[in-house]
Amino acid sequence: MTEYSQPAQVAIVGAGNIADGCHMPAVQAQSGEAAVTAVVDVDLRRAEAFAARWGIPAAYDSLDHMLREQHPDLVIVCTPPIAHGEAITACLDAGASVWCEKPPTLSVAEYDAVAAHEREGGPYVSYVFQHRFGSAARALREHIRTGSLGTPLVGVCHTLWYRDDAYFEVPWRGKWETEGGGPTMGHGIHQMDLMLSLMGEWTEVRAAMGTLARDVETEDVSMAMVRFASGAMVSVVNSLLSPRETSYLRLDFPEATVELSHLYGYDNSHWTWTPAPHRVGATAVELGAPLDDEASSHAAQLRVLLRSLRAGERPEASGDDGRRALAFIAALYESARTGRPVTPDMITPASPIYHSMSGRPHTARDNAAKEKTGV
């Protein structure tokens, strides 16, 4: 990164809706700590239109060309999932840190191959898991760490969304080779990452999935039961078939039930803190709800990311911390495919699910990732 007194120079790769609606506002919310100096898209006209709309000095249709000319501190990757790995690797090799949209990569193997291009002190690649960064999630994470609510016992983690047939007319959607999976991989990953960031290490998953209503090769619904090292058990559902959409997380502790009900983001008003019967009358604040109210958002995560990169420290949601959700999804798919419970030690290079979320034999793309990791 540049000197702390200078704004971070940021480039955006992929001039689509997520860059327009989330990432540009997130950069602009950094109080001058970051500035977008370039945008890249395979469609140069779209890149130029994006640049004109946001007042960005340079537009490119080549990532390599942009990296040679601009030397950005941070590149935000907003491409379809199939392009994540190649873009991340090119940026890291050019000395630029990366913040990449979900899902991180198409497989655990590709994640590990990409991570091999990081260097101690940076550049690093981190991933968009913004639900971790609201003040209520941070407060609850600390209460779980200290045990102030007791050990978590029972949980629910549901992503119940709706996507119609037209949504899947985009060529790369609904295919293992280009999207990496269905709602488990591309939608529920946010809520599941929040669950995992709160609950810690999981020890077993038992799952099922189906393609019930959409003309896709991936699943359109999945369900799982998860055990954690703490002993807690959590029910997980990911769906794109649910007309009343909600993202719902519930954790039951000896001292309270804590619930989050939202759709694509939350603030403190979306959380409910309910005391156990022996603590009837206790207020949310007395149970541990925070007084500060920072919403979950791309802006909140970017603020933390920039601080880490300026310090030469590995950011949250990178490395093993960013890998956790992807490995969990691989385990969920493996259990659904085989009908057997899956434990973390089973997600290894010896397993097909490590190389492809479908569990199918390696493609040329998977083999390239395998060669890079030396496994």
UniProtKB/TrEMBL annotation:
Region entry Disordered, spans: 343-375
Classification via Pfam families: GFO_IDH_MocA, GFO_IDH_MocA_C3
InterPro entries linked: Gfo/Idh/MocA-like_OxRdtase_N, Gfo/Idh/MocA_Oxidoreductase, GFO_IDH_MocA-like_dom, NAD(P)-bd_dom_sf
Comp. bias intervals (Basic and acidic residues): 363-375
GO molecular function: nucleotide binding
Residue ranges occupied by any Gfo/Idh/MocA-like oxidoreductase N-terminal domain in the UniProt entry: 9-125
Domain of life the protein comes from: Bacteria
Domain GFO/IDH/MocA-like oxidoreductase positions: 138-245
Name of protein: Putative oxidoreductase YcjS
Organism whose genome encodes this protein: Streptomyces afghaniensis 772
